[in-house]
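Researcher: We're teaching a course module on how sequence relates to structure. For the next exercise, students receive a sequence and then see the predicted structure as tokens, so they can try to spot secondary structure elements on their own. Here is the exercise chain.
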Amino acid sequence: MQSLASILALGFIIALIVAIVFGVKWFKLREDKDSKKFKQNKKRTIITLVILIVCLFGSGMAQNTADEQEAEAQKQVQYAKGKKNYKDDKDDFINQYKYIAAATEQLSNQEGKEWEEAIDNSDEDFDVDATIDNIEEKHSDDIDSLDTIIGNMHDADQKIQKNTAAPKGEKEKIHSAYLRLKHFTNHATDISGSYNDFTDEHNEIDQEVADKAEELQDL
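Model: And here is the predicted structure for the students to work with:
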């Protein structure tokens, strides 16, 4: 279509020049309207004007069609690029998900054991807040690391959510998995409640995260 638009544009220019030439000749012979040359130039001017109009509108329509085809081609290129990016981003997300889930599970288990030991070794004046503070201080490096990594996972999730080439159903599963994982890391990095609540929540969220990991693996 682009080549057709170029041909018609060239035809318009040629027709314009020819129309001007015949038009000038026609005008010069206006005093002799019955002459053969006057009639010929008039006819030729009208014909070239018609051709000029056809080329003008035809060129515009062909250019619009060419622009639409180019836009569609660009859209297809972007879509293909988006599909490839989604596959790479999804694989990275799943790998990071497994790593963070395992690290969070390990940290939460360790915190639970230390809390249990503190209870077993305590007197009647067991201080819950002091125990939590001691556990969090002991694992401050791991907690800071998880906070940073889950922040990166948020960015990875948002990147996938904004990818228009990614299937809607898969994006929903990925986002749901991210929210469960974030809840799990929050559980391990911001300890609260009682020991029983902590362990019950660990068991519940740990299983949920494991289930989400299986869902991700099937994508």
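Model: If you want an answer key for the exercise: The first helix runs from residue 2 to 28. The chain is about 85% helix and 0% strand.
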